[in-house]
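quick one before i forget lol
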Amino acid sequence: MTQGSSQGSGSTGGNGFLIGGGILLVLLLLFIFQNTADVTFKYLFWSFTLPLWLGLLVTALAAFVIGQLALMWRRHKRRKARRDSR
C-alpha cells in the first residue's frame, strides 16, 4: 500500500512541473513573437544582426541547457556523497 501511495504523490509533482513549464513556454513564445525587430548583437569582438526573437530563443535555450547541466552535476554530487557515506 505504501508503495502505491508514494508513486501517486510523485506523479502529481511531475505534472505540476509540466504544467508550470508549459505556462512558461507559452509566455516565452508570446514574448518572442512580439519582438520581431532586427537588432545588432555585440559580444567581445563579434558583431552580428539577428531578429530579436531568434536572439531571445537562443538565449532561452542556452539557459535551459546550463540549468539542466547544473541539475545533473548536483544529482551526481549527492549520489557520490550518499555512496561515500555508506
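fyi The chain has a mean pLDDT of 82.
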